[in-house]
Amino acid sequence: MNVNLNIQNPTAAPALNAGLSVVEFARLKAADNRATAHLHPKHAAKLKAKRKARWPRPCVDEDGTACYLVPLSDTRPAFAIVEVADYWKARDGGADGLWSAMGTSRHYSYVTSNARMRSKVPGTTLYPARLILDAAAGERVGFVNGDTYDLRRKNLEIIKART
Question: Origin, by domain of life (predicted)?
């Protein structure tokens, strides 16, 4: 199935949770349980529902690569696109909170995630694009096609700091 890759408004986004494997479903559910374990059951249920609504949606890009569309907002149709393996790499690297679009002072918007609730540095903002490319301190991540919601490897590049 091909999808419209206008990430701001994907008209062909697959149905919620359609096509997730049993393993993927279990990993997402376990992450939700970890993130809500410290909450009162009533609040935990609300947060789990919100997190489940933002689970990735499997798709295939124009090159035939298996990808996910990751919802970035509860109130507007904004999605990031990321290759399946890189999505799990970013989550395993700490970006297992809700993925969001965060604007900057230059009116650009980048995909972000908060660090694990129980991490050593709670509340730390992580950039999945940096985790995908293993960007070191001093290196920036550039977006070849200019779309900061397109986190596929073919769109990401490391930009070395000027010396």
Answer: Bacteria
Judge whether 101 lies within some domain.
yes
- Number of domains composing the chain: 1
Strand order from edge to edge, sheet including 66-71: 57-60, 66-71, 79-83
Residue with token string 């919802």: 71
Residue 57 maps to a domain: yes
- pTM, two decimals, is 0.81
Distance CA 46, CA 44 (A): 5
The torsion region of residue 123 among left (phi > 0), alpha (psi -120 to 50) and beta comes to left
Residue 132 lies in a domain: yes
Q: What's 80-142 look like in SS3?
A: EEEEHHHHHHHHHCCCCCCEEEEECCCCCEEEEEECCCCCCCCCCEECHHHHHHCCCCCCEEE
What is the domain extent for residue 70?
A: 22-159
CB 144 within 8 Å of CB 154: yes
Are the beta carbons of 65 and 83 closer than 8 angstroms? yes
Structure confidence by residue, pLDDT tens digits, 80-109: 999 999 999 998 888 888 899 887 655 568
Q: Is residue 11 one of the residues assigned to a domain?
A: no
